[in-house]
Automatic annotation (TrEMBL):
InterPro entries hit by this protein: Bact_solute-bd_prot1, SBP
Signal peptide annotation: 1-21
Name of this protein: Sugar ABC transporter substrate-binding protein
SUPFAM superfamilies: Periplasmic binding protein-like II (SSF53850)
Keywords: Signal
PROSITE patterns per record: PROKAR_LIPOPROTEIN
């Protein structure tokens, strides 16, 4: 049985700030010198899927790049998250991708890299040492770096403090306490949890957290590497049971499997006080500041609670690497494109990214006074493990099945045993 080289990052937080093994290449691969005047107009296409203040941060970085490179223009295109992956696959397969593109690293980026569609950055003059190891590892495959990470995310429960105060509720430490909150809110005609699961990935946060709290951080590693556990492990079955128990309790908004995330209806339920909680990445903070800044004073957050019967460490937290900036191998201007992603991950850009959007940098030693980011940094510092999303780690066919079966669990179209069995059968086909 072959051992898979997991792109999944399951790492002790003691190693979070370890210097990247990729090192720092001091070789100048012929990038254009700063301020060079390029003859004729050069246009670089950049695709990304962050809106609001993040998009403005990227635009400011682009403006700095353009100032240093007269005659070069960057055309940045925003594509909503729900459409982005498909658009990129079509563009790559059609031979007409953007020069620079956004990703989450992991297996999604690796598939393009394996197909020779992404530029390796190893020979460029890039300070790899400035990146957090946990982030750069997720963009490095077989010792080749294929993307520069600007940010990290954590998945936490965000809640309306005003509603909690009204009903005498406190941030839960245990899952039993969490269920008491759900039941109290339901009894008082408040939607306990907003779920926007049309595009499937929001629901997977529950499956991954339940599986981690029940089976521990080695559960996924064992199933993915085919080493001691499988995707039909009892902990995965129980995770499905926990999901369906929440559905049966009426914990979520009506029609949750048909509500899209990008359109914002789900977030409006929180802003308006119709619902009380949402399990989401810390990008939710940026959404609040753009869409409903008056809601920020009501905003609280807590970690996914501990499950008494579980074997997982309650300090474990779900996370992701995003955005990651990469260069398409089809670009006619690779040196300029690499210079652009260098600017998009510069210290100045990282400082803007953290302080203007309420996000976490994938770059070391970025200071902030933002109370939310300080709290998130504390959670990361105390975490035993940060687990990356399955759909960014598994091979594409298995990742898609993971999304499908999890959505079907929420819709009760599959039993927990059926969902786990389907995942394990596909894993045997693809990973054994």
């Amino acid at each position: 049985m072959r051992q898979k080289a997991a792109t999944f990052v399951c790492i002790s937080m003691m190693g979070l700030f370890v210097l990247s093994a990729c090192g720092n290449s001091n070789e100048d691969a012929g990038t254009e010198s700063e301020g060079e005047n390029h003859q004729g107009d050069i246009v670089l296409e950049l695709w990304q899927n962050d809106a609001s203040e993040k998009e403005k941060v990227y635009q400011d970085a682009i403006a700095r790049f353009e100032d240093k490179n007269p005659g070069v223009t960057v055309n940045m295109q925003y594509i909503p998250n729900d459409d982005y992956k498909q658009r990129m696959v079509v563009a790559m397969s059609g031979g007409d991708p953007p020069d620079v593109f956004f990703s989450w690293g992991g297996s999604w980026l690796k598939e393009f890299a394996d197909a020779g569609q992404v530029v390796s950055l190893n020979d460029y003059d890039i300070d790899f040492d400035k990146f957090l190891d946990v982030a750069l590892t997720n963009t490095t495959f077989e010792d080749e770096v294929y993307g520069l990470p600007l940010g990290l995310t954590q998945t936490l429960f965000f809640y309306n403090k005003e509603i909690f105060n009204e009903y005498g509720l406190e941030e839960p430490q245990t899952y039993d306490e969490f269920l008491e909150i759900v039941d109290t809110l339901k009894e008082n005609d408040i939607i306990p949890i907003t779920l926007t699961n049309q595009t499937k990935w929001p629901g997977t946060y529950y499956l991954m957290y339940f599986a981690d709290r029940l089976g521990g951080e080695d559960l996924f590693q064992g199933a993915f590497n085919r080493d001691g556990t499988g995707f039909d492990d009892e902990s995965y079955v129980k995770a499905g049971e926990y999901i369906q128990d929440l559905v049966d309790r009426g914990a979520f908004n009506p029609g949750f499997n048909g509500v899209p995330y990008d359109a914002g209806q789900g977030r409006q339920l929180l802003y308006s006080g119709q619902s009380a909680m949402m399990l989401m990445t810390n990008t939710f903070i940026s959404s609040v500041r753009t869409e409903a800044p008056e809601f920020e004073e009501k905003l609280g957050m807590f970690e996914f609670p501990e499950i008494a019967e579980g074997n997982g460490d309650p300090s474990n937290v779900g996370g992701a690497t995003s955005p990651v900036w990469s260069v398409s191998s089809a670009t006619e201007h690779p040196d300029l494109a690499v210079e652009l992603i260098n600017e998009l991950t510069s210290i100045e850009t990282a400082e803007d990214y953290v302080n203007r959007t309420g996000s976490i940098a994938a770059i070391k030693d970025i200071e902030t006074d933002d109370p939310f980011i300080k709290r998130i940094d504390e959670i990361a510092a105390n975490a035993n493990d940060i687990h990356m999303p399955y759909d960014q780690t598994l091979p594409p066919a298995l990742a898609e099945l993971h999304l499908d079966t999890t959505q079907q669990l929420f819709g009760k179209a599959l039993t927990p045993e059926e969902a786990a069995s389907q995942m394990e059968e596909k894993a045997k086909e693809l990973l054994d």
